[in-house]
Design a protein that fits this description.
The structure holds 2 protein chains of 2 kinds. In chain A, a hairpin with a 2-residue loop joins strand 9 and strand 10. Chain A is an alpha+beta fold. Chain A has 11 helices and 10 strands. In chain A, the strands form 3 sheets. Chain A has a 4-stranded mixed sheet with strand order 1-4-5-8, with helices on one face. Chain A has 3 domains: about 110 residues, Acyl-CoA dehydrogenase/oxidase, N-terminal domain (Butyryl-Coa Dehydrogenase, subunit A, domain 1, Orthogonal Bundle); about 110 residues, Butyryl-CoA Dehydrogenase, subunit A, domain 2, CATH 2.40.110.10; about 140 residues, Butyryl-CoA Dehydrogenase, subunit A, domain 3, CATH 1.20.140.10. The longest helix of chain B has 29 residues. Chain B folds into 3 domains: about 80 residues, no CATH class; about 120 residues, Butyryl-CoA Dehydrogenase, subunit A, domain 2; about 140 residues, Up-down Bundle (Butyryl-CoA Dehydrogenase, subunit A, domain 3), CATH 1.20.140. Chain B is of the alpha+beta class. Chain B is built from 11 helices and 10 strands. Classes of the chains: A alpha+beta, B alpha+beta.
Chain lengths: ~375, ~400
């Protein structure tokens, strides 16, 4: 039994901590939020140079060949800085879809660009009616000679406005909510028939609605098996959940620590707020739940890496707990900061918003509690 | 004890319904004109424009049951927007502690919705500990005016207010609660600067107000110098009852049920989801209890008792319920609640849901943070005193 990270991973952690420290002071971040795509191209290149964009890409294709633990280290640090670059969309979801589901030719074509930062990917899985069910898919792909033709509508696609390729979940057979009959394709964002409308999200990031009308894609762009794409889609969702949970744990750490220091500085009734026992106990609870989230994060991540039998249940447990406790820690951080906590000026509100968005992605806490209990 | 409405009450309820239906806003007509006319017609009904004012000052003199009926009916009907600052917060203070001149000067304009007031209480270092306020008011040697300098914060709608009622410090000796003076100050003058504070929901409703050497005539002082804390404390109790918003929450819960019924989930809707349903049910039970706590408080107020420390229960429960309704709205919106701004994504209600939820986080902070409300109950209701250290 060992929960220490390796010396290589320690180097990774030190470098990402330094990156966040140097580039993610709140004022700088809020300026990036206002730019066209909502993140920094320079930061993106820095991430490429440091090898992070290929963290999960096999070495044969220019990547680092790392696993979910390496991703966890990066995402936890990103959570501490509320990093805006589309690492989750492109590396965690997009690159994994190609690495796990593409043929050799497609990997050779796509992955080096992802690693170098010249190619940005994303995953379009949600639809208006699907709520949190991955398998609820209306968008369909029809075989036509060597190609497939896709029609449908995808919702809340992360950073599609700046991506070159989009992984799309489609229905190739079966009923709307069947797990069988799902196929994933890699389409070009600028292909004829693709209409992308982008908008900001609550946390200062960007997402898009995507209309697909007669979008033609070659069968060589199929990811995973035809009609059997659910397993790959669920593996991507799992990778997404692990990454988001790691990011959430980073954000929670900032929230509880900022609250502890604020209540020691702020004086009311001739005492530091931290003198009041009711507030001390609340902060102890925030700290405990942060640690519990971290434990579930380690548990689920290690079980996924080792492909343990209970991995799927631990992933549900993790997403449930992080969603619930992210809200608990965020609400109390705001409450204990009083009026100041409700403003855009302090950073805690921004961390709180990120935790709320994380709860809404890949299934909220209720959804995963129900799946865990099933 | 009896909870059925008497035939007189039922007749009153019908009268209120008729009034609200007859005078509902018609789309396309001038809103501002309709609004002022609505208050005029309400006044002609016998004080329905100032339902909470005492009869002596033009109020309707309703029984608690009538007040309850009014709250219930107006929560679901379309009534003109109204602000509590002059009407429900300042007016009771003027009625109890202002002189005749002040009452004649300020109350009619408040009643006619001609003048907007804002509340100058909190300061950067006087939030929960309001008595710590430092905004200085110095009386001139000839005793004709005060010179006021200081900073107020969280001042709701200061940017549209004509006047501010302010707690100021006129003496540093003695207890913090002594030496506080209640002043009425026009907003549109040199020396007053209003700076917006943008809150988490993205809205501009609160402000920072800087006062620099603002001259205030001594006739704008309410009551005696140094006694302002006592006047304000009574007013805070009014503010706390007003914040519970039970009837509105009941209507909001109904609305939420409708919205959740539009959210597809598998073959049914979100209302078929057992965990979501259980949360709605828990919320409803809390509302049923709090509704009756409010009724009990109304009834004791009708017997002439001032809203006392028990009003803290209503603020605590009422605001926590409002927050839970907002949270469940966000949950109903699912992934679409993450969208920000006017983008037409997902269900219509999901668009405003997150912003409403974020704004609602302030409900348990303003008007006395929940932690302070619990202190008040512990001290004043349970009678818990600090033990002597041994």
């Amino acid at each position: 039994m060992n929960f220490d990270i390796s010396s290589e991973q320690q180097i990774l952690q030190d470098s990402v901590d330094r990156f966040v420290q140097d580039h993610y002071e709140l004022d700088k971040r809020q300026l990036l939020v206002l730019t066209e795509h909502g993140f920094s191209k320079e930061n993106w290149q820095t991430m490429a140079e440091l090898g992070w964009l290929g963290v999960s890409v096999p070495e044969a294709h220019g990547g680092f060949g790392g696993n979910e633990i390496d991703t966890m280290i990066l995402m936890e640090a990103f959570g501490k800085g509320l990093v805006l670059e589309p690492f989750l969309a492109s590396t965690v979801l997009g690159a994994k879809a190609i690495a796990d589901g593409g043929d050799e030719a497609l990997k050779t074509e796509m992955l080096p660009g992802v690693v170098e930062g010249s190619r940005q990917l994303t995953l379009a899985y949600a639809e208006a009616q699907s709520r949190f069910d991955l398998e609820d898919i209306i968008t369909h792909a029809k075989s036509d000679g060597q190609d497939y033709v896709i029609n449908g509508h995808k919702s809340m696609v992360l950073h599609a406005g700046s991506a070159q390729q989009i992984v799309v979940s489609t229905r190739t057979s079966g009923g709307q909510a069947d797990k069988a009959g799902i196929s994933l394709f890699l389409i070009d964002a600028d292909a004829p028939g693709v209409e992308i409308t982008s908008f900001p999200t609550v946390d200062g990031q960007q997402a898009s609605e995507i209309k697909l009308e007669g979008v033609r894609v070659s069968s060589t762009r199929l990811l995973g098996e035809l009609d059997n794409g659910y397993e790959l889609l669920n593996a991507l969702a799992t990778a997404g959940i692990l990454a988001l949970a790691a990011e959430a744990v980073g954000a929670m750490e900032i929230l509880y620590k900022d609250t502890v220091s604020y209540t020691q500085e702020r004086e009311q009734f001739d005492h530091a707020l931290s003198d009041f026992q009711v507030l001390q106990h609340r902060m102890v609870d925030m700290f405990m739940e942060y640690e519990q989230c971290k434990s579930l994060l380690y548990r689920a991540t290690l079980e996924v890496v080792q492909n343990s039998a209970g991995a799927q249940r631990s992933v549900h447990a993790l997403k449930y707990y992080v969603g619930k406790m992210g809200t608990f820690i965020g609400e109390n951080a705001v409450q204990l900061h009083g009026g100041m906590g409700t403003t855009e000026e302090l950073r805690i509100g921004h961390y709180f918003k990120r935790l709320l968005v994380i709860d809404a992605q890949f299934g909220n806490s209720d959804h995963h509690l129900a799946l865990f209990a099933a | 004890m009896d909870i059925d409405l008497s035939s007189t009450d039922l007749a009153f309820q019908q009268e209120v319904r008729d009034f609200l239906t007859t005078n509902a806003y018609n789309n396309g007509t001038d809103y501002a004109e309709w609004r002022l006319n609505w208050f005029k017609l309400a006044r002609e009904k016998g004080g329905w424009d100032v339902t909470k004012w005492p009869e002596k000052f033009g109020g309707p003199g309703w029984s608690p049951t009538q007040h309850y009926i009014w709250e219930q009916e107006t929560a679901v009907a379309q009534t003109p927007w109204d602000l509590p600052f002059g009407l429900s917060m300042l007016a009771p203070v003027l009625m109890s502690y202002g002189n005749k001149e002040q009452q004649n000067r300020f109350l009619p304009d408040i009643r006619d919705r001609k003048v907007n007031w804002c509340q100058g209480y909190s300061e950067p270092n006087a939030g929960s500990d309001l008595a710590n306020l430092k905004t200085k008011a110095v009386l001139s040697e000839d005793g004709t005016h005060y010179t006021v300098t200081g900073t107020k914060i969280w001042t709701t709608l200061a940017h549209i207010a004509d006047w501010i009622f302010c707690l100021t410090r006129t003496s540093d000796s003695g207890k913090k609660q002594e030496g506080i003076t209640f002043l009425l100050i026009p907003m549109k003058q040199a020396g007053i600067e209003v700076k917006p504070i943008i809150t988490l929901g993205g809205a501009h409703t609160v402000n920072m107000v800087h006062l620099t050497d603002v001259k205030v005539p001594v006739e704008n002082r309410v009551g005696e110098e140094g006694k302002g804390w006592g006047y304000a404390k009574g007013l805070l109790a009014h503010e706390r009852t007003g914040l519970a918003g039970i009837s509105k929450s009941l209507a909001a819960l109904e609305n939420l049920r409708k919205q959740a019924g539009e959210v597809k989930r598998g073959n049914g809707t979100l209302l078929d989801d057992p965990s979501y349903r259980a949360k709605l049910a828990e919320l409803e039970i809390d509302l049923l209890a709090t509704e009756f706590t409010e009724l009990r408080s109304l009834a004791s107020a009708a017997n002439g008792a001032e809203p006392g420390p028990e009003s803290s229960i209503l603020k605590l429960k009422g605001t926590e319920i409002q927050q839970r309704i907002q949270k469940l709205t966000v949950e109903a919106g699912g992934i679409y609640s993450a969208a920000w701004g006017p983008m037409p994504v997902g269900h219509l209600f999901a668009r405003g849901g997150m912003s409403g939820y974020l704004s609602s986080r302030a409900y348990t902070i303003y008007g006395g943070a929940s932690e302070v409300q619990r202190d008040v109950i512990a001290k004043n209701v349970l009678g818990i005193k600090k033990s002597q250290s041994k």
